[in-house]
Amino acid sequence: MTETASHPYAGTGAHTGSYYAASANPAPLRPVLRGTHEADICVVGAGYSGLSTALHLAEKGYSVTLIEGARIGWGASGRNGGQIVNGLNASLQTIEARYGHDTATFVAGLVNEGGEIIRERIARYNIQCDLREGNVFAALTNRHMAELRERKALWESYGLRNQKMLDKAQMRDHVRSDLYEGGMIDTTGGHMHPLNLALGEADALEANGATIFEMSPVTSVETEGAHPIVRTKDGVIRCKTLVLCGNAYLGDVVPDLEKRVMPVSTQMMATEPLGAERAQALMPSGACIEDVRYILDYYRMSADNRLLFGGGTVYGGADPKDIKAKLWKNLQKVFPELKDTRIDYAWSGNFALSFSRVPQMGRLGANTYFAHGYSGHGVTGSHTFGRILSEAIDGDLSRFDVFANLPWIPFPGGRQLRVPYSVLGSWYYALRDRLGV
Ligand SMILES: Cc1cc2nc3c(=O)[nH]c(=O)nc-3n(C[C@H](O)[C@H](O)[C@H](O)COP(=O)(O)OP(=O)(O)OC[C@H]3O[C@@H](n4cnc5c(N)ncnc54)[C@H](O)[C@@H]3O)c2cc1C
Fold first, then answer.
1. Virtual torsion, Cα 274, 276, 279, 282, nearest 10 deg
2. Which helix (H) or strand (E) holds 144?
3. Judging by beta carbons within 10 Å of its beta carbon (0-12, 13-18, 19+), is residue 69 exposed, middle or buried?
4. Domain range enclosing 281
5. For a pocket test of ligand 1, which of 219, 232, 379 has the largest count of ligand atoms closer than 8 A to its C-beta?
6. 215 lines ligand 1 (CB under 6 A)
């Protein structure tokens, strides 16, 4: 239950041993930051938050420098389930209850935006990342079905009509497993190769004139004063506007941000290629699946017909010793027929959890912006937040201000106790899931 304190870039900074790293499109190694540089806009972190912010700004004609501690997409953005799930992790119901109807209406107006940005990027820059359509939420119990019906009704009350309930038989059009009572499909969701999306966005960024440094961990930032300063071991960038997008991997480089979110790891593994026929038999529609439990399974077929299966969480962000052992039981509950299947890759990655599950953006000092805390569902949210940050930097604060003014809620017990308290909370919800109550 202890939090990991190790520096995220220990070792070479090379990509984790994921299936995605093994099947990544070729990418150049960008230079390390050395010496002193001036920049209009400096973005720290080349995950989707940083890439989206930087690319939106570069497209508007700003001069942008992006600095990454390891490689492009080294963090959650290059390791995730690849599931394009509309919405922020916190439900509209939670947002309505906590922040009121107007905020919920505002959020409902942008829940599909991230998926649209991703598709627009893929099309405009011809990014090869195996995009497929459809994401399905799977229900293991009747209570889960009731939850999904409520969620659909709530989304419809905000004018969002892209979801359809699936009974037990219809669910089998998407996943041939006896585990589920039914589910709900979002026809505007989808999935893709997440690292290749990030790599394609980095290429697009350079095509728009931006500069990228890799293998250059930022060790400190100065956010006071008109010109923020970023320091690495070998270099300094002095800029007009700084954007911090290190998310769960930023660690304690910026203490004001560290206390707002907690790193949490989740794990994935990839089977050997199953062959097109078998893959199609197991998941006929090609949509990706996530179930609706508190600690959920999420999975999909890769373009080369491997089952990519994820699940589990470790509060504090440590890597479990044996990822395969951790996920194997869950995989077999879904697909018992895969019991003799080889696992070729297993990996772990950290996302940033905020206590309310609502992602955060804001400002430190006059000219430093940040976004983080997508709480496990950030593929779409990070793209939307990047656009909203770019609008703010470009002078339109209207959407930025709504998020920046939402009061964030500290973890009970602060840094010392947030891990044990969260573990206790998750036991409670996992127990409810197991008991079906
Ligand atoms: C295993 C896993 C599965 C997931 N599955 C899904 C999914 O299927 N669907 C979904 O919606 N969400 C999923 N998520 C969450 C989603 O991946 C994240 O919310 C999203 O990628 C966050 O993007 P980001 O750019 O904010 O952070 P990251 O992608 O983590 O990027 C942060 C970057 O900042 C860099 N950085 C940090 N500190 C420094 C520093 N000091 N100096 C320089 N660089 C620094 C890091 O190296 C990293 O590259 C998953 C997450 C994980 C870990």
1. -130
2. helix 142-157
3. buried
4. 19-423
5. 379
6. no
Residue nearest atom 21 of ligand 1, based on CA coordinates: 77
**Candidate from 111, 136, 247 with most ligand 1 atoms within 8 A of CB, to mutate:** 247
Cβ neighbours of residue 154 under 8 Å, at least 6 residues apart? 91, 92, 93
Atom of ligand 1 at shortest range from CA of 348: 1
Cα(373) to ligand 1 centroid in Å equals 10
47 lines ligand 1 (CB under 6 A): yes
Query: How does pLDDT run across 367-420, given as a tens digit for each residue?
Result: 999 999 999 999 999 999 999 999 999 999 999 999 999 988 888 766 666 666
- The answer to whether residue 3 sits within a structural domain is no
pLDDT tens digit sequence for 200-243? 999 999 999 999 999 999 999 999 989 999 999 999 999 999 99
Cα 378 to ligand 1 centroid, rounded to whole Å: 8
What ligand 1 atom has the least distance to the C-alpha of 352?
A: 19
Query: Which pLDDT does position 2 carry in this prediction?
Result: 33
For ligand 1, the distance from its centroid to the CA atom of residue 383, given in whole angstroms, is 12
Q: Kindly give the number of the ligand 1 atom that is closest to the alpha carbon of 83.
A: 8
The domain tally of the chain equals 1
Full-model pTM: 0.95
C-alpha of residue 77 to centroid of ligand 1, in Å: 4
**Residue 432 counted as domain residue:** no
Give per-residue pLDDT as tens, 254-295.
Answer: 999 998 999 999 999 999 999 999 999 999 999 999 999 988
Is 9 a residue whose pLDDT tops 60?
yes
Residue 246 lies in a domain: yes
Whether 379 is in the pocket of ligand 1, judged by its Cβ within 6 Å, is yes
Q: pLDDT for 113-129, tens place per residue?
A: 999 999 999 999 999 99
**Helix, strand or coil for residue 165?**
strand
CATH code at 178?
Answer: 3.50.50.60
Residue 400 lies in a domain: yes
- Dihedral of CA atoms 145, 147, 153, 159 in degrees, nearest 10, equals -110
pLDDT tens digits, 22-47: 999 999 999 999 999 999 999 999 99
169 contact partners, CB below 8 Å, separation of at least 6? none
Please tell me the distance from the alpha carbon of residue 175 to that of residue 16, in angstroms, as a whole number: 29
